[in-house]
Each structure stands twice: as C-alpha cells, then as structure tokens.
Amino acid sequence: AQKVTQAQTEISVVEKEDVTLDCVYETRDTTYYLFWYKQPPSGELVFLIRRNSFDEQNEISGRYSWNFQKSTSSFNFTITASQVVDSAVYFCALSERKPTGANSKLTFGKGITLSVRP
Amino acid sequence: DTGVSQDPRHKITKRGQNVTFRCDPISEHNRLYWYRQTLGQGPEFLTYFQNEAQLEKSRLLSDRFSAERPKGSFSTLEIQRTEQGDSAMYLCASSPGPPSYEQYFGPGTRLTVT
User: Is the pLDDT of residue A101 over 70?
Assistant: First the structure.
C-alpha cells in the first residue's frame, strides 16, 4: 500500500526566510511518480511539480527547489526567500506508474500549513 | 477559462436530502477523478473514469454515492440520503493520461449537511 507522510503540520516563518517542507513516502512499486501541490486559502489545488522515480535529478524553478532522494524515500520542497503569497497548505502526493488504461490515483499526505509573516 | 470547473461551489443541505455535483474537465482529458477532502486532511480518492467507463471505486464510496460520466465529457457525483459525515470538500481532477500523470484540480464543491 502507498503512504505519504508529512510530519510537519504547521510552519511559520518571516518573509525572506528559507523554508523546507518534508515529505516521506512508502510504496512497493519500483516505478512511481511524486508530486507537490499548493492549496491557497481560495481552496483550489495547484500543481507544482511531478518527479519520476527513475529521475533523481534535483530541480529548481525560481524560488522553488525539490530534493528527491530515493535512498531515504524523501521528496523535500524548499522555498527560498519566502513571500507572504507563499502562505498556503502544501501537499505531497504519490502515484503508481501504471499501463495505459489503469488508474493512477494520487495518495496525498495530510499537508503542511505554511504561514509567511511580513 | 480552460481549467476544470465544478458546480455548485457551495451546497448546504439537510440530512436525508439528495445532492448532485457536476464537474467539467479540461477538454480532451480522458481521465477524470473524484476526491473528498475533510478539514485538516489531504484529498482522498473516491472514483476514477477513463472516458465514460468508471474503472475504479474506493471503499469510501458507499452505496449512497453514485458517479457518472456520460459521453466521456462532464461527470456528476450524486449523494443520496445525505448524512452529516458527508460534509466535506468534493474535488474533481482531470488528466490527459500517460505519459503525463499530472492531475489538474477544480475549485471543489463544499458540502455542508445540517
């Protein structure tokens, strides 16, 4: 069975601080996908990134960076120089890679509430 | 707007009433998912459609819940004889399928059962 653990529940930082959101996952599959989604106060889940299990290269997109370590089953997300607009709930999710036609449902963690204070 | 849309955004109903929600996926996305999210939790999978075929249902989907996707376009989720425990945000997502596994979510329908 798949499982995603986001041990941090709430994080509060001051604007311009760096912050790292942790994600640990469990799966029996050798091929899978990992995701991060952002849920701002408006409620709509916004896709941020997908990472394939066979690609451990870290990724940077502007102030966002992701560190995927298969050896520790972790997929951590760092926001550099945080801004008030980054305040949201962040979810890590896992999906098995399946053949065409099969369900690739997402298994989500419980989310981390990030508050960035001015 | 070419994103996923859901209607209504909010629904308040009395216990025992039936409710129906609609989801319009991104056009040409053949995969459609329903999830339920309660306060302080991540979304939980309910059911999945590929085109018009409902291929998987979670054990969370009791026999009071039914979902359809006629013609493989929009989808509806109906809850019969609502209970207070059904109060939640119901999220719809669509995906183009392999090789793209991203799911794009709608704004959700918040259901409150009084």
Answer: no
Residues of chain B neighbouring A91 (CB-CB closer than 8 A): 42-43
> What CA–CA distance (Å, rounded) separates A36 from A71?
19
DSSP result, B39-96? TTS--EEEEEEETTEEEEE-TTS-TTEEEE-GGGS-EEEEESS--GGG-EEEEEEEE-
What six digits make up the tokens of A114? 């990030």
Enumerate residues 46 to 85 of chain B having a beta carbon within 8 A of any beta carbon in chain A: 48, 50, 55-56
Reported as a pLDDT band with limits 50, 70 and 90, residue A87 is very high
CA dihedral B65, B68, B74, B79 (to 10 degrees): -20
Q: How far is CA A106 from CA A33, A61, A109, A117, in A?
A: 9, 23, 10, 31
Give B39-86 pLDDT, tens digit per residue: 999 999 999 999 999 999 999 888 999 999 998 899 999 999 999 999
